[in-house]
Amino acid sequence: MSADSSPLVGNTPASYGTLTIETSLDPLNSSVSSVRLSGYCGSPWRVIGYHVVVWVMAGIPLLLFRWKPAWGVWLRLQPCNLARAETLVIEIRDKEDSSWQLYTVQVQTEAISEGSLELPPQAQAEDGRSQAAVGAVPEGTWKDTTPLHRREEAVSGQQVLRYYLFQGQRYVWIETQQAFCQVSLLDHGRTCDDIHHSRLGLGLQDQTVRRAIYGPNVISVPVKSYPQLLLDEALNPYYGFQAFSIGLWLADHYYWYALCIFLISSISICLSLYKTRKQSQTLRDMVKLSVQVCVCRPGGEKEWVDSSELVPGDCLMLPQEGGLMPCDAALVAGECMVNESSLTGESIPVLKTALLEGPVPYCPETHRRHTLFCGTLILQARAFVGPHVLAVVTRTGFCTAKGGLMSSILHPRPINFKFYKHSMKFMAALSVLALLGTIYSIFILHRNRVPVNEIVIRALDLVTVVVPPALPAAMTVCTLYAQGRLRSQGIFCIHPLRINLGGKLRLVCFDKTGTLTEDGLDVMGVVPLKGQAFLPLVPEPRRLPMGPLLRALATCHALSRLQDTPVGDPMDLKMVESTGWVLEEGPAADSAFGTQVLAVMRPPVREPQLQGTEEPPLPVSILGRFPFSSALQRMNVVVAWLGAAQPETYVKGSPELVAGLCNPETVPTNFAQMLQNYTAAGYRVVALAGKPLPIAPSLEAAQQLTRDAVERELSLLGLLVMRNLLKPQTAPVIQALRNTCIRTVMVTGDNLQTAVTVAQSCGMVGTQERLLIVHATPPERGQPASLEFLPVESSVAVNGAKDSDQASSYIVEPDPRFSHLALSGFTFGVLMKHFPRLLPKVLVQGTVFARMAPEQKTQLVCELQKLQYCVGMCGDGANDCGALKAADVGISLSQAEASVVSPFTSSMASIECVPMVIREGRCSLDTSFSVFKYMALYSLTQFMSVLILYTINTNLGDMQFLAIDLVITTTVAVLMSRTGPALALGRARPPGALLSVPVLSSLLLQVALVAGVQLGGYFLTVAQPWFVPLNRTVPAPDNLPNYENTVVFSMSSFQYLILAAAVSRGAPFRRPLYTNVPFLVALLLLGSILVGLLLAPGPLRGPLTLTNIADTCFKLLLLGLVAFNFVGAFMLESVLDQCLPACLRWLRPKRASKKRFKQLEQELAEQPWPPPTGPGR
């Protein structure tokens, strides 16, 4: 949300307001661009008018208002100020779409204590207005507003709480701000000091007031009763159209057809009710969590309450045996080992430590190492300072991480996809066609002297023919088949509509560690220091002499013991394993030192050392710990050993950052060259540093230290060199993606040189392709920002904390031959701020983005989307949650079936899932086009048949409609979607626009062929010597059977099968038609039956009201016409697929692409690039 809310004020009337939400505030829900609220209250005259309209129109508006509730509000209520509103209309615009979605909610009221509802100063903008302001009034008005909103009937000393519920979230009215504010923002800006002050607990009165404001701590998934679900389904527009059609068919004497459609619709409704209720119950059981928790009360009292009664500010006492967290909470005392796989997909247990006191604003994402998230499992909890493990509740209900996951499932963001928009436009075009057909039928039927009531029924019947009501269901089947195939391969999708987006991917971002490379790391060795010189690599760290470097390797970690097994980060496990030291915790560790400690590292029995003199192998206790932070790229510990006069601190992290924290005198002059040597070879390098601390060696003293105090004036101890091998599947997948013109980008928090080496090893950067490093320098000392492009072969890492990965000052001349750019997070930040015009051009050619903080990964994905890339992101969900959520197709490598961070979750631990999702996406999208074309052609084919028969005052029979719609069309429409994806990715992409020349050309030409064949059959029949015309004075269906009807029905029945086969092409996005065995069998079986009906109808002649044609030669002639139709349909599709694009290119000059990234690529090809070094512009 923008801190500057002044654009919301201006001359905006008080009856509505606009809230702009930015991705940076909530990266897990970044789809909303803006929200507009409009207030409405009762109006007697409008209510009277509303009821009059309803009565005059026989209640039809009630059905319309159920589908469009906002329309009913606009008619029944009058606009008013939000402060008086009883009903709100919420208009939400997706950031990728310009259309608005409308919702209505009721404003609810509740009495609370006066002064209970106030925003903290941190939640207000500089001008004093709320950052969450919605519906703000001009500045001169709100400053003088009474701080309480009272009703006349409210008792003295009470404030009326006004709020509304929307998609699980609660929004409360802040009178002083004249705005509704999400309850989670009431505590926005609370500092870590404020969190720690809450450890005393809330009084009963405070908790009661907060419960009224925040609501119960439950994630409620509504499970409607069967009568409610039945009403919702029955009043659905689809079934409303079906009910209208059934009534029309009954009036037209199509009893069997109407009965079958009624039975099928009833069965469909029942199945839908069962499935919907079962899904709701499954979700409810998934989130249902009600446990007894112990909360602290002022004065040291304890109280056991149900978890549903928790409110932000409550202080929980966590049991040592752990359990499920019922809310989001900040850990303020003790440590917890937590399994977060249900949310992030990270299967490795995570150590959570106590939040440090300080004036820093608390943020769950920034302080996630100190935050316990709702739904995660606490494996164990340990108290150190004080007898209990304490956590302060920060978020409850749908505001929690688990609530966000459920909200994304219950209310998925709309997909901005041309295909869906164009399908609606095409349906509108079919409706116009139906109108034209209706006019024609009225004219023809009137000419044939058909009674008026029959004309009305026949004209309306034509509407049910042209507009296919089963189209949405047929389209849904495509994604359901794709979702099932993905599930069978271990890829789970909670938003099936996003499968089609996978077919449009043009760029895929990959995390490095755990995604492109193996999760585990192998220790290659340690490079110790002696004075200011590096010593040779020691392959076995356990052979190091006892000293600071060995102690740092053994203690600088966040491991814990769970069931007598060390658990934690794989790198920490490998590092400690290489030293041979053993981790001890609990009473055994405390007894070893005679006092309470976090853990003890006990050295092994020493072997003769290869170098140096050996010190006594004393155990080392861990007194304090600052866990690893992705933003800071380091961690540290405070340790001591028996007999030590003072403790020491050890820091482990990014070599450049750690070196920047060290005393320069302890950093060797060849540090950058040494680092370059190892990172260029693809090794991961971690620096270790340390220093003595002037405090008592006790747990209490260590807990009082701040991170800044222990991370200055350090002494560099050495380098830990680790080997992180590529996964065997990585290189083939990257090569396959690049061969299909899908850009691959690495986004990692690792060292730039290491990332470059991995990119070259896996094929992101080819051996013959040039790679330049982008180096940006911010303005300093009066000098403007500058930008350099450096060849990677001459780049040298620079010692310093600003940009760990900067290259030498050598500047190359502009050279258009290079293909790839590599840059660090620091440079990316400088480009964002000082080179906004050059940033898009860098992004178009950027391949390696290293040292990227989690929020920068999200920014990168969003910037790429601004260039109109369809962006995919694949990562492990650990520190790339925002990027996975922001991407068009986010794939989290996790064992969980649903993840809070992405719509796709893959249980396979490699990037093989990416081409699978793309292939399924292309297959699903291509199938969607085919099904849409088929359903449209089916409607138009039947439309032609009915118009031809209307002309001679007859129609298709009851059972004939039944055979066409249910036996033929439904069967092939469902089975044609079963064709699987092509085995390999190709360069071609399926079109995204339905209203394109190839698609429309196919439809028009196929319809022309269909009409020609039907008319040809009709005129051939009329020309036969044995032909007897029907009696036009007898209306249908009483004039059945007749020759015209029999021929038109027979020919059109073949056409439905021909069209299904013609539009079900295989390559390049799907497997060949013959691989879809059920579909092929259905085509052959139905085709054989139709041939039999034409040549020898037998017992089916009566039910289908067919006339027996004795002329065998004529029937063979009709089969020849069918064969012509078959060959013509396939030739049309082949010619349109292969020749039409070439013809279009020849007839019209190639137009410039509308895609922003394509335009930039063209610009870069036509101008010198990279630009010369210059100041920011």
From TrEMBL:
The chain crosses the membrane at residues 254-274, 426-445, 457-482, 934-953, 959-976, 997-1027, 1047-1064, 1076-1096, 1116-1147. SUPFAM superfamilies: Calcium ATPase, transduction domain A, Calcium ATPase, transmembrane domain M, HAD-like, Metal cation-transporting ATPase, ATP-binding domain N. This is Polyamine-transporting ATPase 13A2. The keyword Magnesium applies. It is a multi-pass membrane protein. One of its GO terms (cellular component) is neuronal cell body. One of its GO terms (biological process) is cellular response to oxidative stress. Interacts with MYCBP2; the interaction inhibits the ubiquitination of TSC2 by MYCBP2. Interacts with HDAC6; the interaction results in recruitment of HDAC6 to lysosomes to promote CTTN deacetylation.
